[in-house]
Amino acid sequence: MIFGLGRLFYVVLLLINSIAVLSEERFLRRKTTTHHYLPVGLGSQSNQAVFGQQENTTKSKLVQLIGAVQTLLRKIVRNINNLYWWQFRFIMMLVVLLITIIKQLFKVSINVLSTS
Amino acid sequence: MSYNPYYSEIGSDSNVGMAAAGKGKNISATGKQYGMQQPSLGPQTPQQQQQQNGSYLPSASTNMAFQFGQTAFNQFVGQENISQFQETMSKATGATNSSVAHYFQVSNSYVFHKFKLITVPFLQKNWQRIPDSSNSFQPPRIDVNSPDLYIPVMGLVTYILAWNVTQGLNGSFDPENLYFKLSSTLAFFLLDLIILRLGLYLLVSNTTSPVTSLVELTCYVGYKFVPLIFSMFFPASFIWLNRLAKLYLFVAFGVFLLRSIKFNLFADMGNSADFSFKKGTVKKVNYFLFVYGFFWQSVLMWLMG
Question: Sorted alphabetically, which keywords does the UniProt record give (chain A) (predicted)?
């Protein structure tokens, strides 16, 4: 199989990352100061409703979603940056170990079930 | 955990209903933990965040942005889902309407009728679900149009086993294929669910309809195992018979999906006078469901099968 859960994880991670790195000033805002880039008009400042009211168009939902992803990822990245390097490496090692163990457990259990 | 003198009062206030249900201290404690994550706590939320973060003191604009983001994220995931999960945990044994157990109340005749509905959806006239007395819907064993989780779960297992049996009949059985097929099927399933949820989130605004909740969308997405399994009955040696059968089954499934989602999405909107749907929204949702139900589902099932 080419497409599995691991690939889906990569796909989702890269897509979320691509949303997070969209630059508001260069790309998303409708009127850009620099005209080298294509303005799309999806910035949070460009068409925000009065504070407290929520617009319900598709475009405003998209703007909200992009803003939500960006703010949440900024918070996560800030927390990761606060770690020391050895704490970060330790956590990453644990994660990799856990994934490997789960994979092996799946394979072993399926082999045992199919041979018995 | 934050140490806020106002906090316990708010937590206990919001859990009066649950404590009155006679569940004791445990549930109210978990309710407090869940209540911390909800953004609708009012003026106390900035204080909490400051105390949680300790040394990091956010400015007012950061706070506002974070709340804004959290609200939008909760809207995307569905705020009812969190509270639904809470209720499910508390009433895991009882077969109440809001729990997942509601979607497992099936009978034999329901399952046969549902198979008939998926394979021959052109005969069905009425697609709307039967409402309950308490502002919800009847369980699947009474109502054929109600979605259930029994067929998707059983379909997933059956589909993986049947696919491996066909591999075995070809003489190329490998026990690792069980694992790979499960992984790939779940990945396609999740991808499908994400696309459907994202489309409905962007197009439909603030519906009170339960169709947009993740549990019911899981049901609708999971019904595609039925045509996938049925298409395996046709032998691959008669190649044109196989293709025709697959084409018919995919078209029938598209019709089923389109009608069963569409008629229930805008069903309860006509009653409430203050909430009127624009015609443009309905049109857009119809286009999206058409493309999703026919083209994307066919491509997906062709990739899977």
Answer: Membrane, Protein transport, Transmembrane, Transmembrane helix, Transport
Query: Which of B64, B184, B287 to probe by mutation at the A interface, max A CB count within 10 Å?
Result: B184
Q: Please report which confidence band the pLDDT of residue B36 belongs to, taking 50, 70 and 90 as the band edges.
A: very low
Residue B97: inside a domain:
no
**pLDDT(B151) > 90:** yes
Check CB contact of A30 with chain B, cutoff 8 Å. no
Q: Is residue B76 part of a domain?
A: yes
Q: Which residue of A has its CA nearest to B277?
A: A56
CB contact under 8 A, A12 and B76: no
B96 domain-assigned:
no
Lowest mean pLDDT segment, chosen from A5-14, B13-22, B70-79, B118-127: B13-22
Range of the domain at B79: 7-90
pLDDT class of A35 with cuts at 50, 70, 90 = low
- Do B286 and B154 share a domain, yes or no? yes
Kindly state whether residues B116 and B162 are assigned to the same domain: yes
Q: Are residues B61 and B157 in the same domain?
A: no
CA angle B4/B9/B14 to nearest 5° reads: 120
Task: Tell whether A106 lies on the interface with B, counting CB pairs under 8 A.
Answer: yes
Evaluate if residue A5 carries a pLDDT over 50: yes
Does residue A59 carry a pLDDT above 50? yes
Position with higher pLDDT, B138 vs B164: B164
B128 with B217, same domain? yes
ipTM of the complex as predicted:
0.70
B139 & B231 share domain: yes
Q: Which of B90, B123, B153 is the last residue of a domain?
A: B90
